[in-house]
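Tokens in:
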């Protein structure tokens, strides 16, 4: 598993079927983040919520249902949203713990 390889433990895990974040709720989750990495096709796009266009970022963060995409991983004050190999290559280095939202 990617987390074990990077010596990262899971501190919090939230089931996305039971806890959803739509629109403004999704924004509140990531608004104060230092950076948000979003999987987009085979690429990974990095956003700074403080300077990014809110509507553009929300479109990338949410799926067809309007909910925050899963998986969403938080390491420190950095978020990783969605999944592809490029995104998980960017995961924090040197261990620590993550929160799954």
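Residues out:
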């Amino acid at each position: 598993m990617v987390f074990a390889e990077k010596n990262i433990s899971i501190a919090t895990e939230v089931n996305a079927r039971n806890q959803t974040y739509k629109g403004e709720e999704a924004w509140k989750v990531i608004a104060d983040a230092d950076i948000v990495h979003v999987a987009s096709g085979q690429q990974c796009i990095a956003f700074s919520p403080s300077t990014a266009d809110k509507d553009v970022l929300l479109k990338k963060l949410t799926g067809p249902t309007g909910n925050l995409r899963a998986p969403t991983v938080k390491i420190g004050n950095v978020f990783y949203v969605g999944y592809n190999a490029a995104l998980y290559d960017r995961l924090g280095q040197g261990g620590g713990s993550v929160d799954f939202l």
